[in-house]
């Protein structure tokens, strides 16, 4: 089968055939099922993707810890998955979730708590929706 | 400066300091500013990110073509950027856009036109919002 045919199957077919990168990962975007806000961008390996599908909870693969990770296992801030979608070439996953509390390890609802502003070519950030729902020093202490 | 201090600055500061990966890229999620739907997940290098900020249009870096790419330059399906946000560790970008027509090269509004379904452990896809707004064979022909 040619590469083009294979791509066509993956893009137009209904077979679930995630395309993992060289590290065995796909990119996952989690959005708030209620508001549409992007909560986080993270990675899933095959096991994380399968567990997310099978359990209806958000599972990821931590590149820094090199470990499978159930979202909220330390913090209690779990994700109930409402819908899972694959993108055209099946190397990205979009999950719509009901997020308990904060998705971000900094204690914010979303990891995207800063907007980019450009003042005459001078680019900086400003806080947006940056309220901390928990204190990371308390939640993640050993 | 320790790695921890540097991470803290990047996460809690207001300096724009995108964290590019080994290939010089950050992940970008584009959502529909009106509906919150995820339209696409793609990559930006420094030039694409700077051009997106400076012009208010979506620019990306194509890994397959190894080239900077203005969204819609072939198809006319451009993106006007409404807001740009950086995530906690500044290796992912969320842009809210007004998408002209279809974001996906397959002609669909969004790249995420298939949902994952699990029937007793048998995982497959089903089309959702998969109407084609243009014919790729016509739009991308040489």
UniProtKB/TrEMBL annotation, chains A, B:
Keywords: Amino-acid biosynthesis, Cytoplasm, Histidine biosynthesis, Hydrolase, Magnesium, Metal-binding, Zinc. It is an enzyme of class 3 (hydrolase). Coiled coil: none annotated. Zn(2+) binds at residues 88, 104, 111. Binds 1 Mg(2+) ion per subunit. InterPro entries: PRA-CH (IPR026660), PRib_AMP_CycHydrolase_dom (IPR002496), PRib_AMP_CycHydrolase_sf (IPR038019). Pfam families: PRA-CH. Catalyzes the hydrolysis of the adenine ring of phosphoribosyl-AMP. GO terms for cellular component: cytoplasm. It comes from the Bacteria. Pathway: Amino-acid biosynthesis; L-histidine biosynthesis; L-histidine from 5-phospho-alpha-D-ribose 1-diphosphate: step 2/9; Amino-acid biosynthesis; L-histidine biosynthesis; L-histidine from 5-phospho-alpha-D-ribose 1-diphosphate: step 3/9. This is Phosphoribosyl-AMP cyclohydrolase. Homodimer. GO terms for molecular function: magnesium ion binding; phosphoribosyl-AMP cyclohydrolase activity; phosphoribosyl-ATP diphosphatase activity; zinc ion binding. Mg(2+) binds at residues 87, 89, 91. Its cofactor is Mg(2+); Zn(2+). It catalyses: 1-(5-phospho-beta-D-ribosyl)-5'-AMP + H2O = 1-(5-phospho-beta-D-ribosyl)-5-[(5-phospho-beta-D-ribosylamino)methylideneamino]imidazole-4-carboxamide; 1-(5-phospho-beta-D-ribosyl)-ATP + H2O = 1-(5-phospho-beta-D-ribosyl)-5'-AMP + diphosphate + H(+).
